[in-house]
Hints:
Elements: E1 5-10, E2 17-22, E3 25-32, E4 41-42, E5 47-55, E6 61-66, E7 76-80, E8 85-88, H1 94-97, E9 104-105, E10 113-118, E11 125-130, E12 137-143, E13 178-182, E14 186-191, E15 198-203, E16 207-212, E17 219-224, E18 229-233, E19 240-245, E20 248-253, E21 262-265, E22 270-275, E23 282-287, E24 293-303, E25 306-317, E26 325-330, E27 337-342, E28 347-351, E29 359-361, E30 365-370, E31 374-379, H2 383-388, H3 391-400, H4 409-415, H5 419-436, H6 450-454, E32 466-471, E33 481-486, H7 488-496, H8 505-517, H9 521-530, H10 534-548, H11 551-561, H12 570-578, H13 585-594, H14 601-604, H15 611-621, H16 624-641, H17 647-650, H18 654-667, H19 670-680, H20 683-686, H21 689-704, H22 708-720, H23 742-750, H24 762-765, E34 814-816, E35 823-825, H25 826-832, H26 848-851
Antiparallel strand pairs: 1-2, 2-3, 3-5, 4-5, 6-7, 7-8, 8-9, 10-11, 11-12, 12-13, 14-15, 15-16, 16-17, 18-19, 19-20, 20-21, 22-23, 23-24, 24-25, 26-27, 27-28, 29-30, 30-31, 32-33, 34-35
Helix pairs in contact: 4-5, 7-15, 8-9, 9-10, 9-13, 10-11, 16-18, 19-21
Amino acid sequence: xxxxxxxxxxxxxxxxxxxxxxxxxxxxxxxxxxxxxxxxxxxxxxxxxxxxxxxxxxxxxxxxxxxxxxxxxxxxxxxxxxxxxxxxxxxxxxxxxxxxxxxxxxxxxxxxxxxxxxxxxxxxxxxxxxxxxxxxxxxxxxxxxxxxxxxxxxxxxxxxxxxxxxxxxxxxxxxxxxxxxxxxxxxxxxxxxxxxxxxxxxxxxxxxxxxxxxxxxxxxxxxxxxxxxxxxxxxxxxxxxxxxxxxxxxxxxxxxxxxxxxxxxxxxxxxxxxxxxxxxxxxxxxxxxxxxxxxxxxxxxxxxxxxxxxxxxxxxxxxxxxxxxxxxxxxxxxxxxxxxxxxxxxxxxxxxxxxxxxxxxxxxxxxxxxxxxxxxxxxxxxxxxxxxxxxxxxxxxxxxxxxxxxxxxxxxxxxxxxxxxxxxxxxxxxxxxxxxxxxxxxxxxxxxxxxxxxxxxxxxxxxxxxxxxxxxxxxxxxxxxxxxxxxxxxxxxxxxxxxxxxxxxxxxxxxxxxxxxxxxxxxxxxxxxxxxxxxxxxxxxxxxxxxxxxxxxxxxxxxxxxxxxxxxxxxxxxxxxxxxxxxxxxxxxxxxxxxxxxxxxxxxxxxxxxxxxxxxxxxxxxxxxxxxxxxxxxxxxxxxxxxxxxxxxxxxxxxxxxxxxxxxxxxxxxxxxxxxxxxxxxxxxxxxxxxxxxxxxxxxxxxxxxxxxxxxxxxxxxxxxxxxxxxxxxxxxxxxxxxxxxxxxxxxxxxxxxxxxxxxxxxxxxxxxxxxxxxxxxxxxxxxxxxxxxxxxxxxxxxxxxxxxxxxxxxxxxxxxxxxxxxxxxxxxxxxxxxxxxxxxxxxxxxxxxxxxx
Length: 854
């Protein structure tokens, strides 16, 4: 690959080929790296290119364009510094037989060729834009079909759509069929796609002119501007033109050609601009000495019948790792794909990623656009949701199991798939049981917190705890003692923490046995040591080592058996320095307690130990002032973390709402916070704005999933806590003629009031077949064809031996399709749709049964 490649262009005739040129012309073919072992050059991580041919026969190349007809051989039109336009190929082709390849189009006066273009529709036409000459034209149009063929009797055609010309060898070859712009300079040219005989030209460094070649003497339109360089017509919209000058890019609209509709000022001089052929209203630009491609997304806004001033969104992309890009080219068919070439000769194949809008449905379905015609979808069966643990999938799965709605709170813990939630539901069950049995008298709450029981707020501190000195019962040294604090409030707090074994050793043994059944031997041993039962802790560790074959537990038991309370003992020093080597947080907390002097900070701040165990430890070994301060700090820490264990401290108070809000912010689990609020918090706090937002969000989520039964059960549970307020009626049956509520009249009839009180007997209650207000007949049932409200033969039993005060059974209720509005008695419609999916009304093709398929 010799020489410097300054320009690059995709071949419109073959989308897998492209050319580069500088001092020489090169033809490459793009291949997938999976299909080729050693490509000539690597374009991207997935594509490479092989060099097919080289053409070094032409010097002073200024511009090149490729013959646009798809499926044909590659034919190049080369504009040179002397104004000559040469047709050439990379080897033998069908153009050789037509006598086209190698032909020259020479102007009368030599000057630089600024632009050469094949007509994209009438591909036998080629136009060149030249510098100014005071005695010659600057725009020359040739018809390559008028040149002599190799066989002058041949009637072969280069383009089947072009007019046939009978030519002779004596015809002047280089004479153009049309000349425009005497004594002017054509700096840039561009064809219109939908008007193949119309073109726009940047003339004289001060004008944009539009020419209709059917009448070249008449200029269609013109505007005064210095932006005459790089003029390009939008291939997707012939009404849009772009051009540039210096560091300014102008976008023009033919409907208002007097001034540009958009002007964008760049930081450096503009080198090249191109419209993206596969994306509407996307203009790109390359600045000099720059490694970025700038994208200008033109936004059209219409309000009513008025077009609002256009806007432009700009962004930059870095294709590849090359610096100082000299040119680029959009792929003619592949969406948003382009080639770039740098001064160093490095070529990059790059695809521009669109700015996309994600749409995440509550179902959950994640949808986004991928190109112009494709949507990408990820839904809950997809492995992506399993890998990211999407909360909406968890919420829907729980909802189908009636999570949070079980009468017994501990059953909701079994449905929770999160240890934190499981612990909270278990604690709510425990606290409610303690309140109901009277163990927490005087709290005034169904779920009090430790802080409210201890009255540890700043305004009312509890200083009535007694300090006792308790000896270690399993240690031979009588001087080995520890200080503990006791009070009635502390005992209640221990109950809330699950430590209900302070006065009965059997309670402690039962509690530890449950922990052993769960294989949490280190936790059981630690709690035994916290309760000054070292020998019991050693036995638990030995049983754990035997059951789990974990020799580390037996080593810890051996270390624990050598406990000594002497401050300067070797055992104490060794354990204190070895704490950091223990991986189990409960074992760390155990030895931190045994080696503590007067501070228990290492135990209280051990995050791996459950909050309830740390709080229980604090209630035993901290003084009133230290306990109050610790609980305040712990509450703040747990609230900031959104740790639901904070409800152990706050209870179902306004502080507890803050814990739930932080948990919601962290996890997005609006289901759990809503259910916990309505199951545990008092009615006064349910009126808080934040709680109402949770409840509304969760109800809307259930509605979006069409989980009507779960939504109804949630609403029942929501209103069950406030029996004094009757829920307002939400569904009414109104007359189609007068609009009055039929149900309101029916209620008055059933109560024996109003002008129709005489119809209040149970025999007549189902026989009301007209509106009580206007006497118009009610709609007919689509099955039995009797007026709604009429006792049909299959419903007569409903009125027999029935108390007048009871509501009509559901089977005789009005029911109808929300699309076609046809319906009937609920029992009749249910029986119909057991065997049919279509509406029972004749000539109605509504698929009523499929409307609510979810």
